[in-house]
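Q: what does this look like with adenosine-5'-triphosphate bound?
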Amino acid sequence: MAIDWELYLLPYEQAVQEIKVKLKNIRNELRKRKEHAPIEFVTVRVKSISSIYAKANRLQFPIDENIAWEIRDIAGVRVICQFLDDINAVVQMIRERNDMRIYQEKDYVSKPKESGYRGYHLTVEYPLITARGQVTIPVEIQIRTLGMNFWATIEHSLNYKYEGIIPSNIRQRLIEAAKASYTLDSEMNNIRDEIKEAQVKFTQKEEVPMESLISLMDLSEYALNPEERSETTSSRRDENRRNGE
Ligand SMILES: Nc1nc2c(ncn2[C@@H]2O[C@H](COP(=O)(O)OP(=O)(O)OP(=O)(O)O)[C@@H](O)[C@H]2O)c(=O)[nH]1
Ligand SMILES: Nc1ncnc2c1ncn2[C@@H]1O[C@H](COP(=O)(O)OP(=O)(O)OP(=O)(O)O)[C@@H](O)[C@H]1O
């Protein structure tokens, strides 16, 4: 029987939205408590139907009701952190939650992929209450630093541009860039206590939330996700409005 995609994808949309709210609430609570929040921002997406078909064909899975358990990243959450240590903190935080169960972990932080890609991936089972009762949804959670996310976003666009066949000289430069980015992440991690202290002081003095700091630094512009970009842009618009601009 043909899949009704609109109905099929509904719980995946609900799952990513619920997880996003939960993770953002943790970040906001920690900021209110003037504690360092290991979560900088969270983006989510549900895989498009064409991308589901492309992946199923590539991996030779039949398209049926079971496809979400074969592909496993139809529901995707991405958690972006400031520091390398924050990645472990987020993983630990998820391990301790009883509203989701980790069933696969991939550590591409200590073991990067051949491309140079780094990130920590969890696949979790997320119980969801729907109009028809409880269902379990597989969700992929990718945890990256700002630097790793920057690199992956650029590499993803180049892959798109070159239709998956990036010329070898550019590939090599990407590998070098990934190494440089990791060196920066490691160095920032080493001086993180100084930075965290400065950020807390700055926040207390100016009462400027970290979101505005990031938007002032224009980090949001370097890519990320259209949804997150528009969120930041609208918070900047609100700020300008407050300042009478
Ligand atoms: N930009 C970029 N993203 C990557 C790369 N490798 C993995 N990713 C991200 O991580 C996701 C899947 O990573 P893996 O955990 O390696 O999954 P996999 O089963 O080995 O690979 P897939 O079959 O593509 O899902 C991808 O969908 C991307 O979002 C990479 O080299 N470059
Ligand atoms: N877990 C995730 N959380 C948030 N965004 C994601 C996640 N995984 C992928 N994305 C983003 O979603 C967009 C569409 O990706 P898409 O699902 O088509 O392919 P992919 O997951 O990157 O690759 P593949 O199909 O090979 O697994 C891309 O911008 C990608 O970076």
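The chain has two domains: 5-147, 150-242. Residues 201 and 207 are 9 Å apart (CA to CA).
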